[in-house]
Amino acid sequence: MTIETHSGKPHSEPPPGTGESAERVPPAADAVDVQHADAGMSTAPRADHDDIVQPKLGPGGWARWAWRQLTSMRVALILLLFLSLAAIPGSLIPQRPVSPIKVNQMFRDHPTRAKIYDKLDLFNVFGSWWFAAIYLLLFVSLVGCIVPRAWAHAKVLRGRPPKAPRNMDRLPAYASWETDAAPDAVLEAARATLKGRRFRLSPSADSVAAEKGYLRETGNLIFHVALVFVLLAFLLGTVYKGSGNKILVEGGNEGFANSLTQYDDFQSGPWFDTKNMEPFGFKLTKLDQTFERLGTQRGAARGFEATISYWQGDPDSATKSGKIKVNEPLTIGGTRVYLLATGYAPDVTVTDAKGKVAFSGPVVFLPQDGNRTSTGVIKVPDVSKDLQQIGFDGIFTPTTAVDAVRGWHSIFPALDDPSLIITAFHGSLGVDAGVPQSIYRLDTDRMEQYKKADGQPWAVGMRPGDVQTLPDGTQIRFNGVKPWANFQVSKEPGKELALYSVGAAIVGLVLSLFIRRRRMWVRAVAGPDGRTVVEVAGLTRTEGGGLGQEVQALVDDLRASAPVAETADAAGADTTKKDEE
Fold this sequence. Notes:
By secondary structure, the chain is of the alpha+beta class. The protein is 29% helix and 29% strand. It is elongated.
């Protein structure tokens, strides 16, 4: 026996001679019957084909229209697409909360473009007003979609499958035959079979109605509710988060303590409470860096690992050792410490003409290319006898090469042949004006460059251990090089909620994609000849085949208890429809 599937939508030819002025003919009873069988298979509103006279919309009407548009699934999908597109600049353009060094570098290299990006909030995409507007609209749209669908689905769950339609042969999949088994025995076998297949049953006197696949819409709702919670998690992380950056030099005496004054820069949400910052601190004890030395990928980064010693709670408590890698943060309490970037800090000592140390220690230089050619400045206030201030503008190259085109530059990012190239200025650094200034830039507006005896600008290249003397007797010694690491200390509540929500969304999506909504009916009534006429029909409103096969499997099971009568007429006793799915 084979089963046929078709549209199941009855139609009839109009009576001859009818035209536009003809009186509308009501639908046939069997058409209404099939429509009743189809009821409740979808939570989408049904279109009313009656003539509707639209009233004129006032302010309230337009407001309702706008609300219905916003809360439609179509608009929710459009907003979700916009949110995805709006997040793209956040991965292509350096973000100030994550990479302030790269943002400052863009201002130096491309000042016009950087100003435009800054006005458009492209350096802080996820904290911009336009990104917030998109996800807030998406949040409202999703809630407006979910509430009515959840209410409609709850009604379906509380309801019962509709009774068998009068004309079951008009349904998409149908089979019938005659048997000598009693109608009650056939219906009992149908109830047992359908119950074993996890159908929900609604028996009546001469038929059994069954339905399954409710989890499809449940999964759909779970998916959309999970999206709402993802947005909530993002919102919590935005308003309650606190994140800052700190550069530490390997083995330096300077450490970090989790307080606002210790950060190089700090950004927080509007509801972040500084009183709740967790007490801890750490020092960078070792930084391991490895680079590819062979092949076309020569110079590419292969691994970065920072070893830190940290304390938690009491600064005088015992310290612990921890390791931080790129994308593998260290969690201290509820705060995470990330390794963002690395570089080199030339260690120099500056003495005045009398040999008194005016400055000593490593100075952070910022990488400018993939081979770590780095730039930086050394500011030494009040070093000369006439209380002038000195500033050194320098270039550091970890593996040095010199040519006529590029001058001094690095050809490999590791410390194979380090050099420090500096020039010096004297005058006013501007540090006493009370105006904040960058520690990576030298303001030479009120300074004059040192000159050599021949009148040329004073500029020298130094190797570790070299000492150079300025025309006024000031000396600078290049002691060596220490690596530095830029750490991001971040506390962002809502990440766990986002993780669980994404997991729930995946579960809901799987349910909505792989579970199919099915309705089955089995009718068994006594025929004119005394035999039992058995009818089996199925209906689905989800994409994908399999309805005919499922009805066929049900027929095969039932025929074990209700076999075809041996003397039945072949044409009338076994009516089937071919499965075209």
